[in-house]
């Protein structure tokens, strides 16, 4: 009996030791993988240089402790896609979401693990502004121009070339400004804390060819294989009227003509206009060309039509053969007739 008791006590003692060792092993393992997470710093993947701000769509390394069980990572509460193969106990490699907010936000990274969460101050850099459009194409001093685009937050200024405009209202996607005195033709510049963007086309005209009707100093010559309604109210880019051209036969044309010698050289650099495509015009094109006073036909510039929408064009005179004068101003079908187009806001820059 005594021998049995001694054996039993030894077995129990051994089992107790095993339980203690196992507990210590589990505890140590928990220490390696668990515990409340902590965040220390952020750096670019390509360069281990600590940064307090980052750009959308760029990959960074978040350094800290107890990160192995990370479940979610947020940039200003925007959830970032997490690749668990890029998660270690002391760092996470992750890409800032393309839509991560940057304005009126807490400026925080938040990491959630199985054992808690941690935050770190981090600023999402505002993308540079972009201009999609502005309207109207021209209006007098004091008139309101609406600029549409993206990333207009933290607006600093709007300029018409060098003339600063008064901002009437502004949001992240739209700005309303008053046209400064003395501006007849200018590019628009929007400046935010993230940079400056220039409009792709110019505002205004140095000389207006068509606005509600053909300018009085030009003549309406009509054309061939086409008819032109010079004051159609069916469509208008701005105001109430536009120039409606109905092409009845292939290669038809619509002409206008200055009453007197019209000198381009050293005075103008481009032609600007807007075209609206009637039914069935998708995939069709018209050509703009200028014949000078010597009868020389310049380069024919093809303009693609889009059905049901206004398309803006700014055409450098160099792309029209750099004519020195205008005798005829022609819009010609490129072989796709019959169809109808509307043209508005024609002018020279």
From TrEMBL:
<feature type="domain" description="IPT/TIG">
    <location>
        <begin position="129"/>
        <end position="201"/>
    </location>
</feature>
<dbReference type="InterPro" id="IPR013783">
    <property type="entry name" value="Ig-like_fold"/>
</dbReference>
<protein>
    <recommendedName>
        <fullName>IPT/TIG domain-containing protein</fullName>
    </recommendedName>
</protein>
<dbReference type="InterPro" id="IPR008979">
    <property type="entry name" value="Galactose-bd-like_sf"/>
</dbReference>
<dbReference type="InterPro" id="IPR014756">
    <property type="entry name" value="Ig_E-set"/>
</dbReference>
<feature type="signal peptide">
    <location>
        <begin position="1"/>
        <end position="27"/>
    </location>
</feature>
<dbReference type="Pfam" id="PF01833">
    <property type="entry name" value="TIG"/>
</dbReference>
<keyword id="KW-0732">Signal</keyword>
<dbReference type="InterPro" id="IPR002909">
    <property type="entry name" value="IPT_dom"/>
</dbReference>
């Amino acid at each position: 009996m005594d021998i049995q008791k001694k054996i039993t006590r030894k077995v129990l003692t051994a089992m107790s030791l095993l339980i203690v060792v196992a507990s210590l092993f589990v505890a140590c393992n928990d220490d390696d993988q668990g515990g409340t997470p902590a965040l220390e710093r952020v750096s670019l993947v390509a360069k281990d240089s600590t940064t307090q701000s980052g750009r959308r769509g760029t990959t960074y390394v978040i350094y800290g402790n107890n990160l192995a069980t990370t479940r979610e990572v947020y940039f200003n509460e925007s959830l970032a896609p997490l690749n668990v193969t890029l998660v270690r106990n002391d760092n996470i490699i992750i890409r800032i979401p393309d839509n991560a907010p940057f304005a009126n936000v807490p400026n925080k990274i938040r990491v959630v693990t199985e054992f808690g969460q941690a935050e770190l101050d981090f600023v999402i850099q505002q993308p540079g502004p972009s201009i999609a459009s502005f309207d109207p194409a021209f209006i007098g001093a004091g008139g309101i121009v609406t600029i549409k685009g993206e990333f207009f937050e933290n607006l600093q200024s709007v300029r018409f070339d060098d003339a600063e405009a008064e901002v009437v209202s502004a949001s992240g996607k739209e700005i309303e400004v008053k046209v400064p005195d003395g501006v007849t033709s200018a590019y628009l510049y929007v400046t935010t804390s993230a940079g400056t963007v220039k409009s792709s086309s110019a505002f205004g005209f140095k000389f207006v060819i068509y606005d509600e009707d053909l300018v009085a100093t030009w003549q309406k010559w009509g054309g061939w294989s086409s008819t032109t309604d010079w004051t159609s109210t069916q469509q208008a880019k701005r105001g109430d009227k536009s120039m409606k051209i109905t092409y009845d036969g292939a290669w038809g044309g619509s002409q206008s003509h200055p009453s007197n010698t019209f000198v381009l050289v050293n005075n103008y650099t481009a032609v600007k206009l807007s075209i609206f495509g009637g039914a069935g015009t998708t995939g069709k094109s018209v050509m703009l060309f200028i014949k000078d006073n010597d009868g020389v036909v310049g380069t024919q510039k093809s303009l693609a039509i889009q059905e049901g929408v206004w398309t803006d064009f700014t055409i450098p005179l160099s792309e029209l053969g750099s004519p020195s004068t205008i005798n005829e101003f022609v819009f010609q079908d490129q072989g796709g007739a019959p169809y109808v187009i509307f043209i508005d806001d024609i002018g020279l820059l």
